[in-house]
Structures are given as C-alpha cells and as structure tokens.
Design brief:
- Helix content is about 45%, strand content about 10%.
- The protein contains 17 helices and ten strands.
- α8 packs across α9.
- A hairpin with a 5-residue loop joins β3 and β4.
- Among the domains are: about 270 residues, no CATH class; about 70 residues, no CATH class.
- The chain is mainly alpha-helical and about 525 residues long.
- This is Helitron helicase-like domain-containing protein.
- InterPro entries: Helitron_helicase-like.
- It comes from Araneus ventricosus (Orbweaver spider).
Length: about 525
C-alpha cells in the first residue's frame, strides 16, 4: 500500500514537471512568434483579441460578471499587499507617468486642433470638450454653476451676503417674460423704456454700437452718470429727473415719449404707475417737495445708515432716508446735491449707493442700493460683519449669478443688461486703478524697468506728472499687452501666421449645445 502511494506521488510529480515544461515551451514559442510579427500582424492579433474579449464579456450573465470582477479585485489586492516598498514606489511612478502621458497627448491634440482641423473628428464626444450641465449649486447662495467653476466665484465662500432682488410686479414681469407682441416690442426697446424713467444721463468718452446678428454694446474711455437740477431752465424741455415734477401722470408720460422716440405711451403709463407705487426715490422726491423752503437743496446721502442698524445692510432704502432737504453747504463730497434750478450738469460718484438705482429704474424698481465703499464681508457661519470690504467685482458677480429659485431681473433685461454689464465693468476697472494708484509702494513699482526708463528719459520732467505704473496683472495695461504680444509671437513662430478661417454651423438643440465647449483658451506659452 505504501509502495503504491509512492508510485502515485512520483507520477503526480512527473506530470507536474511535464506540464510546467510544456507551458514554458509554449510561452517561449509564443514569445518568439510575437517577436517575429510585423506591425500589421500585431495590430490584427490585438484587434482580434479585443473583439473576442468583448464578445465573451457581452455573453456574461450578471452573476458571472460580478464574480469575475470580484476575483480581479481580490487578486489585485493580494498582489499589492505582497509588494515591497520599492515595488510600490515603482508602480505608483509608472501610474503617474502614464496619466501624464495621456493628458499631454490629449492636450497636444486639442492645442493643435485649430491648425490641423479634422472634419471627420467627433469633437462632440470628446470628454475634454464636454462641460456638462449647470448642475452644481452653491451651498451658501444657491447659485447654479458648472462643475469646473470656482466654488467661490458667486459669493466668495459665503462671505458676500446679498439679499436677492425681488420679483418685479406687474406689468413689468409680464413684459419681461411674456410672448405677446407688446412684450417683444418692450424687450427689443428696453433701453429706450429705461431711458424714459432714468433720473441720470448715461455718458461715456466714446460709445460703439454694433448691429447685425449679434448686437454689441461697447464703450471706450470713461463711463459716467450725470444729473441736473430739479426744474428745467426757462424755455427748456424737462428731461430725466425733471420730468417727475412736470404736471400730472398723463403729461409726464407724454413728455417721456416725446424725449425718447419709438416708445408707446400706454406702456409708459403702466410702468410709470408701477414705479410711483414701488420706487422709494420717486416717493421720497414727492414727499420732500411738500416741505420746501427758500434756497433748498435735495441731498441723496452717499452713506446713510438705517436707524437701529450697526452698519449699512443691503436692504432697499426707505422713503425718509433716500433724500432730504438741506439749506447751506452741510453735505459730504460724494453726496448727490440737487438744486432747484441750475444749468450745471454734475457727475455722480460711481461709489454712491444710488448710482445704479438712479440709472436703471426698470432693473432696481424698488430703488435698491448698489455698490459703495461701506459694504463689508460677513462671517459665513455667524453672519457677523468682518473688517474686509466687499469689492465691486464680488458685489456684481454675486448679483448676476443664476439661481433656480430667483426670477433675476438682470438676466432677463436683454440689451439693458448689456449696458449694465459694460457700465459695472468700467466701475470695477476704476476701482482696480484706484487701488494700484494708492498702493504703488506695496506693488514695488520702483523695481520695474519701465519706470527707470521714464525717469532717465531726456524729456521735460514737468510734463510727466505723477507716474503710475500698472502691473502686468492689470488687464489691458501696457505690460499686460506686452506679455500677450510675446505669447502671440511665440504661437506664430511655432505654427505660422494666423490665416485660418473657421466656420461652424450647428444643428444641435439648445440643451446639448450648452454642454459643449467649442473652444479652449490657452495660457502663456
């Protein structure tokens, strides 16, 4: 019996040795065969293997697939557990290298796509061109964003806390969202209707209007708002704020349509009644004129603090805090002073709290406060004010964000919204320029080569004035444009002159088109 057992063990060992020898010979033979393969033969074999594996996996049942995946995970886990420290570091380095190679390969393809356009390429299905739906919601402000957008772009991580703009009353709401001929006429001419009611005039160094399939509103130079006296001079027609004190409602509406052509008097009358009822500036002016005195002036304070509040919140001002009558010169430098009759046109400070509401009464129909210097960031957890001030960019970025629960009258105002954006961007740029002018030493501009060149030139020093150096981070400044020019020259050097003309005709539906990023802006080379 023992002898038979020994024979059986010998036979098992012999069979195992034969199997190992056969498998080794098969591996060596397969290796030699693959080494002798030509590139087309290798591609054919690999394609057949992939197709065979795909067919096998498609034929799998759900339990078989789960069993295979579980075995793969367990086998991979055992392999990683048995790794030594050098082996693990080598594996991780290989993974990082492979990922970087894939990213660089994808980036090179996208970078050169404009220079080597392939009509057969399926750009729509490229993951790098899909930004997905606007499905991310800010936990602090409920703003809707795309996945790749910065979490703090809407409210700076909850530090900028603004009350939401209230839904507009009728008839303004219906005119903004309606589909009637009257609503379409109103939206097409919304800038004209806003001009009928604005209390300040819009001015700029140079205004450019481009019509066509994509109307564009541009300005060059400085943007400013101006305001005149409360009553027109003799033999002059009332304009802007003066119309509010020119007769009854019918006469006011007639004068507005006379000043602004292509407007309908029935729409103007409806909007006029709405603003008389809701706008605190309209109500305040009428209340102030019931108590006029000789040599009076109406003053709109720049930094009025509501009663009982430690600092100015973002609420709409009440009637008694918007404007007051003053005699004499007791007022601040940024207050708006309205005289009874004067031929002088005054500019309003763009940091005045009423700057936006006086110019855009159809957007800020309640007279809500705009941006001013006294706005403070708040603690996201406690809601208490902090010492850090809110910048103009933070304020207006928060105002313009889309929210699923808000009407957001700004985003529905079409051409008026375009004008508002241009004006507020000019305000942001002025604030940045003011910071740069007041912080030249902090920015260490004395180390800039351009400054040394200006000081050492042979021109008249008296003609130079106060020299302000703009850093390269200021968009549109000389140093910024110089760096962008150098980048452009590098592209021309590598890829040739920009002589391509791209034309695209899309037949995608609107929801699909919103999820596709058709162009990617590259940074510095």
């Amino acid at each position: 019996m023992i002898r038979h057992n020994f024979i059986s063990l010998d036979r098992i060992r012999l069979r195992l040795a034969e199997r190992e020898s056969r498998q080794r010979e098969n591996r060596e033979r397969e290796q030699r065969r693959r080494e002798a393969e030509s590139p087309p033969e290798r591609e054919t074999r690999q394609r057949e293997n992939r197709e065979r594996e795909v067919r096998r996996r498609e034929a799998e049942s759900t339990p078989e697939r789960e069993s295979r995946q579980r075995e793969n995970r367990e086998r991979e886990q055992r392999r990683r557990e048995s790794e030594s420290t050098p082996e693990r570091e080598t594996r991780l380095q290989q993974v990082r290298t492979g990922r970087n190679a894939t990213r660089m390969r994808t980036w090179r393809i996208l970078e050169n796509a404009a220079f080597n356009y392939d009509p057969s390429a399926d750009y729509v299905s490229d993951p790098s061109c899909i930004i997905g739906p606007m499905s991310v919601t800010c936990e602090h402000y409920e703003a809707k964003k795309w996945k790749g957008e910065a979490p703090g772009m809407c409210c700076n991580g909850g530090k900028v806390q603004l009350p939401r703009l209230m839904d507009p009353p009728e008839p303004l709401r219906t005119l903004l969202i309606g589909d009637s001929a009257e609503a379409k006429h109103f939206l097409t001419n919304i800038r004209r209707y806003n001009s009928c009611f604005q209390m300040t005039s819009f001015g700029t160094t140079k205004e450019i209007r481009e019509s066509g399939y994509m109307p564009t509103f541009k300005v060059q130079g400085q943007v400013y708002h101006r305001i005149g006296s409360l009553y027109p001079l003799p033999n002059e027609e009332p304009k802007f704020l003066q119309i509010y004190f020119a007769g009854d409602s019918a006469e006011q509406a007639e004068q507005r349509c006379k000043n602004v052509p292509q407007t309908r008097q029935e729409i103007v009358l409806q909007l006029q009644g709405m603003l008389d009822h809701h706008n605190c500036y309209f109500q305040s002016f009428k209340s102030a004129f019931n108590n006029i005195s000789p040599e009076f002036k109406v003053v709109i304070l720049a930094d009025k603090t509501p009663h009982g509040e430690p600092d100015r919140r973002f609420n709409a001002p009440t009637t008694d805090e918007v404007a007051l009558i003053m005699v004499g010169e007791q007022h601040g430098t940024r207050d708006i002073i309205l005289e009874e009759r004067s031929g002088t046109i005054k500019k309003i400070s763009d940091k005045h709290r009423s700057y936006d509401a006086l110019q855009y009464p159809l957007i800020f129909w309640q007279g809500e406060d705009g941006y001013h210097f006294e706005l403070r960031q708040r603690n996201p957890k406690t809601g208490m004010p902090r010492n850090t001030k809110i910048s103009a960019m933070q304020f207006y970025a928060c105002r313009m964000m889309q929210r699923s629960t808000d009407f957001n009258i700004l985003l529905r105002s079409k051409g008026l919204f375009h004008q508002f954006i241009v004006g507020m961007y000019a305000k942001i740029q002025l604030e940045r320029l003011l910071y740069i002018r007041l912080n030249q030493r902090t920015l260490k501009v004395e180390q800039y080569a351009h400054l040394r060149d200006a000081v050492m030139n042979d021109g008249n020093v008296a003609d130079i004035g106060q020299l302000i150096i703009l850093p390269s981070s200021f968009t549109g400044g000389p140093r910024y444009m110089h760096e962008r020019t150098q980048d452009a020259m590098t592209y021309v050097k590598n890829y040739g002159r920009p002589d391509h003309h791209l034309y695209m005709q899309s037949e995608l539906d609107r929801d699909t088109a919103r999820t596709i990023c058709w162009a990617k802006t590259t940074g510095s080379s």
